[in-house]
Write a structure and sequence with these properties.
There is one protein chain. The chain has 381 residues and is an alpha+beta fold. The protein is 26% helix and 23% strand. It has eleven helices and 18 strands. A hairpin with a 5-residue loop joins β13 and β14. It starts with 9 loop residues before the first strand and ends with a helix.
């Protein structure tokens, strides 16, 4: 068989090029090819279409069906390994804020107006930027104005931009490497610390001080455990002494949980519990425990009979899971009977973190708790 191709095309550049900023085509990734003196782009979708044809014709071994499902649903566009991290479905407009806004054309334009510093114009057209809700690094918003027929049923998304965006925020490599949105497979020291002048750490400190009443309410909604003024003061002092704002595990999204994470077992006896919460349901099945009605809207954990009851709770096992571009953060809560043997009191609870806890608690309780805010001002000077 004679070859009717006069000169074969070869790669002009080793590597794949990110083309997702282009709003005029559907190719997120391209290869630069050379044929003689002519250079031209070859889209990854074209390569995949050729591969599918070759598979049907028996020219290559059959590929797993799951692999094609991932490709057809857009998984190739969010290739974590090539991008250096997964994409995200949330953003915020400025660093230093505890907010997590779902990315859409409406929400993005409503928050930024689509003007500088969020919009930057270049030779190939405008690019749109925002801030990572967790690590305060710049992110780029992709596919914001794609036509519906070109969207391939995919929403606009964000991904880290590894460089400064003037007027918006600066890029911090250490913060990026410790961000769950950067690399879900990256393993770092869970007690790794920010430097003392880190702006995100300082913002977390200020958030704890200025929103402490809402931090405690978010903790209650998460765990089912009420924090009265005395217990709140004790936990805040521990957090202060341990400089909890400096740990990279601490983010804007999980600040309420960080009061208790890695704090060890905490006494549950005489605590007030939210009726109907998952913890309340678990405690109903512990024979040694009596849930006494209280004058407030809570029930109180007490012993069911004579003798002494030791019952602690432990918050541990932080986990990050992914559903497409959506991140879900969980902790496990365990009950322990007895200080010596630490018998498990009930099956562990797996509890979801509300990444937008600040706005949700503000909506649920518009008024402020002056006692808790005074405690925070006195403890965190």
């Amino acid at each position: 068989m004679t070859d009717d191709i006069e000169e074969r095309a070869v790669l002009a550049r080793r590597g794949i090029m990110d083309h997702s900023d282009c709003e005029d085509c559907v190719e997120d990734w391209t290869f630069l090819m050379r044929q003689g003196r002519r250079e031209f782009p070859l889209g990854l979708r074209t390569v995949l279409a050729c591969l599918a044809f070759a598979e049907r014709e028996g020219a290559v071994p059959e590929l797993p069906a799951d692999w094609w499902v991932i490709i057809s649903t857009g998984g190739i566009n969010d290739d974590d390994a090539r991008r250096g991290g997964p994409t995200m479905d949330v953003f915020k407009a400025w660093p230093g804020r505890a907010e997590s806004i779902v990315i859409s054309q409406e929400s993005y334009m409503g928050c930024t107006g689509g003007v500088a510093p969020w919009r930057r114009d270049g030779d190939t057209g405008p690019s749109y930027y925002a801030v990572c809700p967790l690590c305060d690094n710049p992110i780029q918003i992709v596919g914001l104005f794609r036509r519906q027929e070109e969207s391939r049923a995919r929403r606009p998304y964000g991904r880290h931009h590894r460089g400064d965006v003037p007027g918006l925020c600066r890029y911090d490599e250490d913060a990026y490497l410790h961000c769950p949105y950067a690399d879900p497979n990256h393993r770092t020291d869970t007690r790794a610390r920010r430097h003392s002048k880190d702006p995100t750490g300082r913002a977390l400190y200020g958030l704890m001080r200025g929103e402490f009443d809402r931090v405690t309410l978010a903790w209650e909604r998460f765990s089912g455990i009420h924090l009265g003024p005395g217990a709140a003061r004790d936990m805040l002092r521990r957090w202060r002494d341990d400089q909890g704002w400096r740990y990279y595990d601490a983010t804007y999204g999980n600040l309420p949980q960080m009061l208790f994470f890695a704090a060890g077992g905490q006494n549950l006896v005489k605590r007030y519990i939210v009726p109907g919460s998952p913890l309340h349901e678990r405690l109903k099945g512990v024979p040694q425990v009596r849930l006494a009605p209280a004058r407030s809207r809570y029930v109180q954990v007490d012993k069911a009979g004579p003798g002494f009851l030791t019952l602690d709770f432990l918050l541990y096992a932080r986990r990050i899971e992914w559903d497409g571009q959506h991140m879900n953060e969980t902790f496990r809560l365990r009950g322990l009977l007895g200080r010596d043997d630490g018998q498990q009191a009930f099956d562990d609870l797996t509890l979801d973190v509300d990444q937008d806890w600040l706005s949700h608690t503000a909506d649920a309780q518009p008024g402020r708790d002056g006692r808790l805010l005074d405690i925070a001002r006195e403890t965190l000077r």
